[in-house]
Amino acid sequence: MGDELAGFLRSRRGRISPESVGITGLGRRRVAGLRREEVAQLAGISVEYYQRLEQGRAGHPSPEVLDALATALRLDDVEREHLRTLAGSGRRREPRRRAARPAGAARPELVRMLELVRTPALVINDRFDVLVANAVAARLFMLDGSPANLARKLFLDGGDFYVEWDAVAAETAGQLRLTSGLYPRDAELAALVDELRDGSEAFRGMWGARDVSVRTYGVKSFRHPALGTVTFSYEHFVPAGDSRQRLVVLVPVEGSATEAAVQLLAGWSLSPAY
């Protein structure tokens, strides 16, 4: 993970203007953001040690050094945790798969719950694979029963399904980058990232920026070919027993046109869950 840590440090250093940390009057600069020696000074560590960190040659920095770097680079909470993960001090072990159900499958109790929910609801994993969706969600996202991945649909299938495409795309790339740091040996994730980098210039740029993101609630609007533009608030929940899965529930605003659209979708959706 040394190369990943080095790349992340370089990307965070490059986005900070010298003026924002009180460095002025140094004339023309050849690099964007801060210089290595400036980061080292702000963090209270030697320039030589920081250079080794950016070259992937410094081993595992202490929690104190990581905290100092996070402060110097003005990292938010998600970025701080990602820095610790890449440095090896906060890395989680990949959970053992339960033998009672196939790898990546949603628990039967979750599947049954989704079948009873009248608003769009689905279970995805942290690679954005759709593990199960109720019939209303399948209609909304136009899922046909074949394996689906929301990141692949977003970046490779084209179209204008997401009204806020730029924001959704940046958040998706950031969440995949975060997952990649936590599970560097996930071959399926690595294959998905390679596919997206090869097939989408937008994803390639976002992945190269090394931004990380966690979005667990918010509002999203979709352009549906039969319903027009519909808007939902959404919440992500982590089901008990599998930290790599997310239960996603989308709720229309009460009394809105989207609420009527969901009722229409529910009327169409007489088939079992996806």
From TrEMBL:
Record-annotated HTH cro/C1-type domain positions: 29-80
Superkingdom of the organism of origin: Bacteria
CDD domains: HTH_XRE
Pfam family, one: MLTR_LBD
InterPro entries: Cro/C1-type_HTH, Lambda_DNA-bd_dom_sf, MLTR_LBD
Spans annotated as Disordered: 84-104
Protein known as: Helix-turn-helix transcriptional regulator
Organism field: Nonomuraea insulae
